[in-house]
């Protein structure tokens, strides 16, 4: 008998099968993920979780008897009062009083299982893509990087590959039979002892000749030859900028209700999740504004309320300052998302659009404006009325500025709007 | 001086070894079991879930359906809806027993007695396993299957292989030989037979026979019959039929069909012996654990722990209990084997009438070993279910006939009912009876090459409509031409229903 401890074997033996299953059920799972994403809070979005998909997509059919009709026999335990010939009311639903007919899972119309966080996000953000970056004029997504690319025979001394050079040198010295220092020393030592002892002159002459040959050979065959030299070679390659910064701009003036802030927060968080999956490093900058703008931390951004007028341009001024100070467009991919209820000071429209056109849009990879509205039913014909800011931006867009604008008034619209903004752009862009 | 094998709940590999040696000694000497050598493998819960997903086998080819089962099991397990088995045992030589690391020392003893002794003996002794499975080769075969299918995926694309496996899996339960086929004689034995026949003819030669007028030669069998004979029709092993005769399949596709049906065949005995297999293992572990306790090798606490889990395993709720889920094979098997022991050692007059051959024989183990070796569930119930047990379990037979407005109790545990009830229960365990009888009967070779199948309907139980359609579609794609399945009533021979499908994406 052997005992084998398998506990340390690599786990995840079923992983490959699981992935095949997910791929097969992809369309169903994707829909289920979308649906469940609408229901869950944004905080749980990253948690993964249970989804259920219709069974027919992943059924394994077999030739088996159907549920209805036909004569069935059941031998059952636990008789208490029946005697032969008794009749029993047919129970509802199930064909017989017994269980033989039911197959496991036969009655379920949904297949439930748990997705990991990774799988969940993968499926959720599956067909989303960052907006077409090639059209941006200011910055490419790439910088030049250097990477090792083998060895060359020329190069600057700083790049001398000592190990490789010495290896070549050793090989050459062996091949050309250059006497080593030890060999020379051995001959010299023998000469010395022989001379001291007054030994055989013939042998001495022999040794002297050998020494002479060895030394001449050592001079002729150099220790390091230019042939041995090797230099580390580098080549340049285009390196994508793997970091992004995301600017969250939000109006926190009195007219923004908690509901609106909640909508904005959801949108920002989605954007963050999305960017973290596309970039190795994502920074977030929160700028909130009333009639003046300030960079704040996340907590303050979403929680505390302020009073004051509304000057959207102040946020752009602040953003421009931060970009100049910390986030050079050459090194950073800059994304900006603005959330507002659409109120803006009447005198500020021109400034705002100028700032946006001149300073913000040129440095941004993508600029999204999200107009949040009051909860439906709370009065105000929101959809009918165009807000000040919306009109300003609409005009800007009319001039050909590349920005995205959407309106959201209910929590359940957030996901569709987000998906809409980042959908792979095959079809022509249709705006709200 | 104590001879306890372990104390407390902790165990190490030394404990496992001692437990195995002690249980094996009892199994061999006292119960007279004959077992494959054992290999015990300690695994984690995670690995147990993995094993569940690949039908318990340690290695298996890849397919999405295993991933689906894994997802399902994992989900229910994580929600705490399902406990995991304490062990999985594999019919191979050496016999693989997977035991969970979380088990307590007592549970390990139970598991080893149950799987490494009980199941192991059953696998080695039972005629079905001997006939249909090759315990020494199964792991190598699965290894081959896995590598072969992986190579096919590389060569022909994952999608093509997956589609083929889908189709083959759909026909899996129609991919078994239910009866051993006649072995094709080889040349040498054929020659020997011919020689013997000739010698015999020479011995009995009598010239008189020449003078007897012969009848006119029997009419040559019709062309139809000839064709059917060539195609080995009717054939109930549909996968086998396709593998050998489907006109458009590639060699690798035939090989994959073969793999699927070989695996199905390997599991076929297990489906026929669920009751006996579990009953045998449960009976063995009960005997062994009791003996270990009697000889002082496990202490009272452990024995109580064992008894608790044993009684859980053999619980059989009544039909009106909300936990009722059909017969518990552990319970019924254990009860029947315990009952056989009783009949052999302390028979009543009733037992002497019902079981004259074994009543009072005094050697229950011999009877049990014989039963384990030579019966399957259906025949075991038909032979050994005693009136005593039917009475004790208060069994009754219920008939659900759609013609009647109500269910009817056809038999209860009385003199009139015993035999009838036993026959009915045995039939519930007859796989050939519980599964639809579907056969390939003919191919229209002169027309459109349509494949014709018959379902011999028993008790008016027709096939499930939507599943049948899907399976037939797979079958049509494999066959490459049209397929029609007729459901024929056993009584009148009339066609009750007809399903037809044409190949839409034939394999080629």
TrEMBL record, chain A:
| Region described as Disordered: spans on this chain | 56-105
Compositional bias annotation for Gly residues: 94-104
Q: Which domain of life is it from?
A: Bacteria
Q: Name one Pfam family in it.
A: DUF444
Compositional bias (Basic and acidic residues) spans? 70-93
Return the similarity comment. Belongs to the UPF0229 family.
Read off the NCBIfam families from this record. PRK05325.1-2 (NF003707), PRK05325.1-3 (NF003708)
Protein name, as recorded: UPF0229 protein F0L46_17600
Give the originating organism.
Salinarimonas soli
Query: What does the organism's lineage look like at the top?
Result: Bacteria, Pseudomonadati, Pseudomonadota, Alphaproteobacteria, Hyphomicrobiales
Automatic annotation (TrEMBL), chain B:
- Name the residue ranges with Basic and acidic residues bias: 186-195
User: Where do the record's region annotations for Disordered lie?
Assistant: 176-195
Instruction: State the InterPro entries in the record.
Output: Spore_V_R (IPR007390), SpoVR-like_C (IPR057008), SpoVR_N (IPR056174), Ycgb-like (IPR057270)
Residue ranges constituting the SpoVR protein-like N-terminal domain according to the UniProt record: 10-432
Domain SpoVR-like C-terminal: start-end pairs? 436-489
The domain of life for this entry's organism is: Bacteria
Listed name of the protein: SpoVR family protein
């Amino acid at each position: 008998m052997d005992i084998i401890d398998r506990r340390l074997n690599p786990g995840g033996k079923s992983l490959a099968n699981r992935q095949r299953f997910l791929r097969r059920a992809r369309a169903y799972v994707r829909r289920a993920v979308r649906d469940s994403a609408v229901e869950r809070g944004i905080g749980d979005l990253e948690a993964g979780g249970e989804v259920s998909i219709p069974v027919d997509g992943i059924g394994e059919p077999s030739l088996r008897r159907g549920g209805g009709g036909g004569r069935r026999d059941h031998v059952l335990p636990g008789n208490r009062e029946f005697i032969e010939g008794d009749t029993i009311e047919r129970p509802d639903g199930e064909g017989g009083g017994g269980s033989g007919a039911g197959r496991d899972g036969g009655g379920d119309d949904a297949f439930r299982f748990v997705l990991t966080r990774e799988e969940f996000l993968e499926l959720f953000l599956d067909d989303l893509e960052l907006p077409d970056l090639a059209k941006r004029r200011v910055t490419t997504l790439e910088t030049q990087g250097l990477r090792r690319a083998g060895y060359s025979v020329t190069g600057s001394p700083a790049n001398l590959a000592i190990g490789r050079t010495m290896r070549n040198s050793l090989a050459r010295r062996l091949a050309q039979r250059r006497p080593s220092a030890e060999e020379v020393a051995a001959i010299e030592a023998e000469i010395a002892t022989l001379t001291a002892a007054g030994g055989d002159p013939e042998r001495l002459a022999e040794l002297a000749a050998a020494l002479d040959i060895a030394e001449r050979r050592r001079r002729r065959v150099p220790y390091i030859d230019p042939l041995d030299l090797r230099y580390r070679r580098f080549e340049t390659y285009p390196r994508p900028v793997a970091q992004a910064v995301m600017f969250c701009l939000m109006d926190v003036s009195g007219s923004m209700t908690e509901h609106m802030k909640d909508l904005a927060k959801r949108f920002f968080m989605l954007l963050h999740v999305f960017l973290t999956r596309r970039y190795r490093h994502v920074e977030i900058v929160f700028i909130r504004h009333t009639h003046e703008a300030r960079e704040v931390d996340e907590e303050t951004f979403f929680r505390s309320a302020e009073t004051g007028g509304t000057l959207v341009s102040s946020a752009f001024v602040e953003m421009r300052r931060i970009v100049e100070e910390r986030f050079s467009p050459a090194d950073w991919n800059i994304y900006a998302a603005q959330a507002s209820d659409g109120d803006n000071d009447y005198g500020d429209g021109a400034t705002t659009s100028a700032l946006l056109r001149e300073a913000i849009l040129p440095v941004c990879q993508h600029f999204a404006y999200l107009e949040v509205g009051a909860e439906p039913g709370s009065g105000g014909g929101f959809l009918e009325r165009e807000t000040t800011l919306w009109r300003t931006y609409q005009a800007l867009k009319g001039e050909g500025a590349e920005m995205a604008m959407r309106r959201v008034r209910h929590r359940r619209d957030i996901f569709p709007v987000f998906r809409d903004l980042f959908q792979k752009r095959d079809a022509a862009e249709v705006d709200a | 001086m104590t001879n306890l094998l372990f104390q407390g709940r902790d165990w190490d590999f030394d404990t496992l070894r001692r437990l195995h040696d002690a249980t094996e000694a009892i199994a061999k000497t006292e119960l007279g079991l004959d077992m494959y050598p054992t290999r015990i493998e300690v695994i984690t819960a995670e690995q147990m879930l993995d094993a569940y997903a690949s039908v318990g086998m340690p290695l298996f080819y890849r397919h999405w359906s295993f991933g689906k089962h894994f997802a399902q099991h994992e989900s229910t397990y994580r929600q705490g809806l399902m406990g995991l088995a304490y062990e999985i045992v594999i019919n191979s030589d050496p016999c693989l027993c997977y035991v969970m690391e979380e088990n307590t020392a007592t549970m390990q003893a139970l598991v080893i007695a149950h799987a490494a002794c009980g199941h192991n003996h059953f696998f080695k002794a039972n005629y079905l396993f001997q006939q249909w499975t090759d315990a020494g080769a199964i792991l190598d075969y699965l290894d081959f299957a896995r590598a072969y299918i992986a190579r096919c995926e590389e060569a022909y694309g994952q999608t093509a292989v997956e589609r083929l496996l889908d189709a083959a899996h759909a026909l899996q339960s129609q991919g078994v030989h239910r009866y051993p086929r006649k072995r094709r004689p080889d040349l040498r034995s054929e020659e020997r037979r011919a020689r013997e026949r000739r010698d015999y003819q020479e011995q009995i030669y009598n010239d008189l026979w020449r003078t007897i007028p012969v009848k006119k030669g029997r009419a040559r069998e019709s062309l139809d019959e000839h064709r059917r004979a060539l195609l080995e029709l009717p054939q109930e092993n549909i996968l086998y039929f396709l593998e050998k005769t489907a006109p458009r399949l590639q060699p690798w596709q035939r090989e994959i069909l073969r793999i699927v049906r070989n695996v199905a065949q390997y599991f076929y005995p297990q489906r026929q012996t669920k009751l006996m297999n579990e009953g045998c293992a449960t009976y063995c572990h009960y005997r062994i654990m009791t003996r270990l306790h009697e000889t002082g090798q496990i202490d009272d606490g452990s024995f109580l722990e064992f008894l608790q889990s044993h009684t859980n395993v053999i619980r059989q709720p009544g039909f009106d209990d909300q936990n009722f889920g059909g017969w518990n094979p552990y319970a019924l098997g254990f009860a029947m084997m315990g009952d056989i022991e009783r009949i052999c050692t302390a028979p009543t007059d009733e037992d002497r009438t019902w079981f004259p051959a074994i009543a009072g024989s005094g050697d229950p183990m011999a009877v049990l070993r014989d039963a384990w070796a030579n019966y399957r569930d259906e025949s075991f119930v038909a032979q050994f279910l005693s009136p005593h047990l039917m009475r004790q379990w208060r069994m009754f037979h219920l008939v659900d006939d759609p013609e009647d407005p109500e269910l009817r109790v056809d038999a209860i545990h009385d003199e009139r009912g015993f035999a009838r009830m036993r026959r009915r229960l045995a039939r519930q365990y007859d796989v050939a009876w519980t599964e639809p009888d579907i056969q390939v009967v003919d191919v229209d070779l002169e027309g459109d090459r349509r494949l014709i199948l018959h379902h011999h309907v028993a008790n008016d139980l027709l096939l499930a409509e939507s599943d049948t359609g899907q399976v037939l579609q797979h079958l049509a794609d494999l066959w490459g031409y049209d397929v029609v399945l007729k459901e024929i009533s056993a009584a009148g021979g009339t066609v009750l229903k007809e399903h037809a499908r044409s190949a839409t994406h034939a394999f080629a």
